[in-house]
Each structure stands twice: as structure tokens, then as C-alpha cells.
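User: C-alpha cells for Peptidoglycan recognition protein 2, please.
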Amino acid sequence: HFLGPSYNLSVDEVLDTAILNASSFRFFDKAVHHIVTQSGEERGVVLTPDGTTVALSPLLLGIESGLKASTDGTPPAGIFPLTLGRRLGLSFLSLQEFPPSYRLGPNGCWDSVKHPKVFKLSKPATLATDAIINGGMDGLILGMDLSNHSAPQQALSELLKGYYNFTLHEMRGLDAVHTHISPRRREISKSILEPLDLYGLVMETLNLIWKLEKTEWIALDKGVEKAVKEGLQEFAHKYWGELRT
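Assistant: Done. Predicted C-alpha cells:
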């Protein structure tokens, strides 16, 4: 994982200058670890200023990929599998016996809007909850922005602030905003991904997973291709508003 250079500091120097001490790191690790409990509580998610619930893990993976690409001067290779592809593919396959509409989501609700602590899902979870998809879209968008070598370099804090805490001028709507902002995540992610061969990318991601886990035999299942194609159609319908074919 790309976490920046260590500058060859000693252990004591690292501890003295660390942004996160051991206690804070444990909290941070728990906060970003995505799980769904047996009672339907989804953890590792946050409520953003635009009212959307976002999973932190795919968001941070996208940012990490973008930062690494920017540092290396290369394209953000693998950003789609990291942010969306892996979860989409596995969710499509794990529920291929169910109708496509059951293979993504669900959403949920917070115990409090002013002081949100607990997020409960409305239905049994898939491997690609709405929060995972939202976080994946945000990670993809922000990662691509960070990796854009032709654009002026921007501090990560400023990029996040502009994306999540944007300001609309009086009497002007979202259409007047020309930068990437969170309420337009679906529109922006569609513009990034629609020109690509998503089916090929998801299958490539799954084949890599099977190779790493030594379960290549799964690829012999004749239902895999159908499950992925149906799942991607449902994804485009649910999150991009496209009509089912």
C-alpha cells in the first residue's frame, strides 16, 4: 500500500513524529474496516455532507492508487478493480441464483442525522452495498483526479474539501459547478467508466482473484459470464439510471 516515504527515520523518531499514535491507529483501522454485522449494522461507513453514506475502504484505495500514480508518473493501473470491480464481480457471482436486482445494495438509515453513529441496512447485505458502491465511485473519481499529471497539483485535503464540502453560490445550481463534487458522483463515474469494456475488466479482475486464491476452476462455471453481464446491466440501471435491455 502506498503510504508515502519513510525518509529512513528511526523507530523512536517515527513514534515521536507520527500523526497517529497507537491508540489512534487502532481507532482508524477499526473505522475503515468494512463489515456488516449479523444484526444488519454496516460499519466502516460515514455520512457525507451531501447526505450519502460512503464506505471508507474503496474510497481510500482509490485515493491511494491515484497518489501512487501521481508519484510514479504513470496511469492509475488497477484503480477500477480496487474501487469497484472486485466487489461488483464477487457480488454478482455470490448471488447468481437470485434475480439481478437482488445482487446489489441495499441502502440503509442512520440512527441520527445530526450525530450519526449506527447505520442499519434495510435488507440483507450483498457484497456490494450502496455504501460500497458510493465509496468506490468516489475513490475512482478522486483517484483519477489525483493521477491527472496535466492538472495543477492540489493538496489532498483541498481536493477532499472541494469534493465533499463544496459551496453553491446563491441562485446557482449544480450545473454551474464545473469541478468534481460528490452529488454528481454517478454522472462523473458514468463518464469515466461507460467508454470502457466493463465486462472485460470485471472478468479480468475475477480471473486474477481466482489465480491468487488458486480457484481457477470457478471460471469453468458456465453461469459466470451470464451473471456478470446481468449484474453490470443492473449496476448501470440502478446507479446510472440506464434502462434495462
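User: Anything notable?

Assistant: The beta strands are 35-36, 42-43, 45-47, 53-55, 108-110, 119-121.
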